[in-house]
Design a protein that fits this description.
Elements lengths: L2 E5 L2 E4 L7 E3 L15 E3 L2 E3 L3 E3 L8 H9 L6 E2 L11 H8 L6 H8 L6 H13 L5 E4 L1 H13 L4 E5 L17 H7 L4 E6 L2 H8 L5 E4 L9 H4 L6 H18 L6 E5 L5 H9 L4 E4 L1 H4 L9 E2 L15 E2 L6 H6 L11 H11 L5 H4 L4 E3 L8
Parallel strand pairs: 6-13, 7-8, 8-9, 9-10, 10-11, 11-12, 12-13
Antiparallel strand pairs: 1-2, 3-16, 4-5, 14-15
Helix pairs in contact: 1-4, 4-5, 7-9, 10-13
């Protein structure tokens, strides 16, 4: 298990982040134009393995439509500003201009406005009428309250996303969400997470989920490690959950559950390594928040930043560096992995001789901690 001794009374398993590993070229190469990066979950096919993180800084109905038309899967945050305000452009502009010293407190006030169920239906309708796949996200805490509004609005994929989602939540205050019963009774495929371990992922797969999110999401805007002491090194987590997928495939007699890397995937190289570790797709936050069309106006934040009792995220400046099309498909004018991310993924797959994502999950990787060059 690769355990090391932390001290005489405690041992821990060594785990690796995406920065700690690298992909190894093989003896075969191929033309990048012959590489396919498409994937399918349930009945829904996508040209690129990119899912937008359900964050107000990343997705508006308009940017969701743009991503869907580009071949990705947009996910709207159904607890965000777009379901609390008829027109949240004023609130988005205010958040982008907040003093960092008061940002969390003011965001708590802005997000204290109640969720309006009719706006859930309206936002999903806007995306659906554009002809793209419709996905919406709720936290586990609010799924019981609002799921019917989401399903009645005609959602194609339902996302239940939290910092940590378990199949066995214990509560002495309210009846917990029974994921297995909920997913069984729902008539749409469900993606659920985050999960950071083999055991947690296996339990989520057994609930009937179509996909499992790996990680805590919101990597660039998260302070969970500082506030709660909880962290998921992504390379090890993805590999662990991919192992759970393999074992569940045997256990279930052939049911394949998709593994989606969520958090800490900020550059094209991170996407390459996430797939190499076993991910079928990646959920991107900061990478898409950098688009000039993104509603965050060069800033990025997640729901953790405005938690009413214990914020464990922050608003971070990521800049508006390029259009969404340039971020996804280029051409790139910089060499930092923030633009033409799909072109980079295709080139990495071609350089190592693989023709599709499932094949590329078998690529050789090495542990090679990244040491930035000294200035």
């Amino acid at each position: 298990m690769n355990e090391i001794e932390i001290g005489r009374g405690k041992r821990g398993r060594r785990a690796y982040s995406l920065d700690d590993i690298a992909v190894v070229p093989s003896r075969r190469t191929r033309d990048p134009e012959e590489v396919s990066v498409s994937w399918q979950i349930d009945a829904y096919h996508f040209e690129i393995p990119v899912i937008a993180a359900p964050m107000d800084s990343v997705m508006s109905p308009q940017s969701a439509i743009a991503l869907g038309q580009a071949g990705g899967l947009p996910v709207l945050d159904l607890e965000g500003l777009w379901t609390r305000y008829e027109d949240p452009t004023v609130q988005l502009a205010e958040i982008a201009n907040l003093d960092p010293n008061v940002a969390n407190a003011r965001m708590q006030e802005i997000y204290s406005a109640p969720i309006q169920p009719e706006l859930i239906a309206e936002r999903l309708r806007e995306v659906r009428e554009a002809g793209v796949t419709v996905a919406g996200a709720l936290s586990p805490q609010r799924t019981q309250q609002y799921w019917k509004h989401v399903v009645d609005a005609g959602v194609d994929l339902f996302v239940i996303r939290g910092t940590t989602v378990s199949a066995e939540h214990v509560s002495g205050v309210a009846e917990p969400l029974n994921l297995k019963r909920f997913i069984y009774e729902l008539d749409v495929p469900v993606i659920v997470g985050g999960a950071g371990s083999y055991t947690a992922a296996l339990h989520l797969m057994r609930t009937g989920a179509a996909g499992v999110l790996v990680g805590f999401g919101g990597g660039a805007a998260h302070t969970t490690r500082r506030t709660l002491g909880i962290h998921t090194p992504m390379a090890s987590a993805i590999a662990d959950v991919a192992a759970a997928r393999r074992d569940y495939l045997d256990e279930s007699g052939g049911r394949y559950v998709h593994v989606i890397a969520d958090g800490g995937v900020g550059s094209s190289g991170d996407i390459v390594k996430a797939v190499a570790c076993g991910a079928d797709a990646v959920m991107l936050g900061a990478a898409l928040a950098r688009a000039t069309e993104a509603p965050g106006r060069g800033y990025h934040w997640g729901p953790e930043a405005h938690h009413q009792e214990l914020p464990r995220g922050e608003r971070v400046e990521v800049g508006g560096i390029a259009s969404m099309d340039e971020i996804l498909f280029g051409p790139s004018k910089v060499a930092d992995g923030t633009t033409n991310i799909i072109g980079a993924l295709k080139r990495a797959m071609a350089t190592t001789g693989y023709s599709d994502l499932k094949e590329f999950q078998r690529v050789e990787v090495v542990v090679a901690p990244y040491a930035p060059a000294s200035s």
